[in-house]
């Protein structure tokens, strides 16, 4: 396993098993996760400790390209991984601090019709080190500290469950990045089996669910995951999750003109979510080449929001940041790679 995906106790055990003192593990932990460094030869480890780890794997992520929006403070990054794969990330500068969108996989195998990240399928999972690397490389390059993390870049976080949880725990560790679980959000297309697992491990992060359709027929056509876990399965899992964690759910709802913005959808959405502690975030569709649909007009979007609010829902419309730099959903990597 990569050294810079390990917890402190694992690093301590690692050194003990090699005949070194356990505290070397704690030193290395601080070096990786607090100092954000890779250059072991310049650490305060002993020569013996350095020689023990010199052939072990340390996984580095590099910033390959940066794109600055001219419309707002959003920045987009392409990261290069050690096997030359590219992943993307977005950094948003809000009044309350920086918020970063993290990729969890190279590509994605969920196959949602409107999403650019999935169009070439899944290449591979990212390791915890590669997710942390996205955070640390940006923080070092810009000399900032990011306070909010949303796992909404390319990939389905719950499809890479164990590494994603490892990443989140490392991000939370007070000797590492020291981020509150409340400032971390996982977004899922609805992997029901993993939602139960997430509820059971009891870490109080936020859960967002990409809903996008309100009945099984239409949702299955748009999002293949619904053929495996339908809306009734999803609802049961979310009720379990809310009971267990006392959290509310955020539903993401990408508005697609004449597909999911009708009166019928308001009624169906109401029936699906009326008893749930939830919040609805409307996302105007970002057009991609492979999906020949449009977003509703601004006034239609506002009307949809008003109707949901009249039903008693808490609703927001996602602000569009970095429109000029394709700041969403796998579009950038595809442009660079397909070109
Ligand atoms: N796999 C996870 C997280 C990645 S996608 C998930 O499905 O939630 C992050 C969000 O962007 C999801 O809500 C996704 O449905 C949405 N999204 C993807 N492509 C989009 C597009 N072209 N326009 C608007 N939203 C999109």
UniProtKB/TrEMBL annotation:
Q: Which enzyme class?
A: transferase
Task: Kindly list the places in or outside the cell where this protein is found, as annotated in its UniProt entry.
Answer: Cytoplasm
Which superkingdom is the protein from?
Bacteria
Primary subcellular site in the record, as a coarse category: cytoplasm
Do you know which InterPro entries this protein is assigned to? Aldolase_TIM, Methyltransferase_A, RlmN_N, RNA_MTrfase_RlmN, rRNA_lsu_MTrfase_RlmN/Cfr, rSAM, rSAM_sf
Cofactor(s) the protein needs = [4Fe-4S] cluster
| EC number(s) per entry | 2.1.1.192
Entry keyword set: 4Fe-4S, Cytoplasm, Iron, Iron-sulfur, Metal-binding, Methyltransferase, rRNA processing, S-adenosyl-L-methionine, Transferase, tRNA processing
- Gene Ontology MF annotations: methyltransferase activity
GO BP annotations listed: methylation
Q: Which Gene3D superfamilies match?
A: 1.10.150.530, Aldolase class I
Q: Which residues form the Radical SAM core domain?
A: 94-324
* PANTHER family the record matches: 23S RRNA METHYLTRANSFERASE (PTHR30544), RADICAL SAM CORE DOMAIN-CONTAINING PROTEIN (PTHR30544:SF5)
Q: What name goes with this protein?
A: 23S rRNA (Adenine(2503)-C(2))-methyltransferase RlmN
Q: What is the scientific name of the source organism?
A: Peptoniphilus grossensis
The upper taxonomy is: Bacteria, Bacillati, Bacillota, Tissierellia, Tissierellales
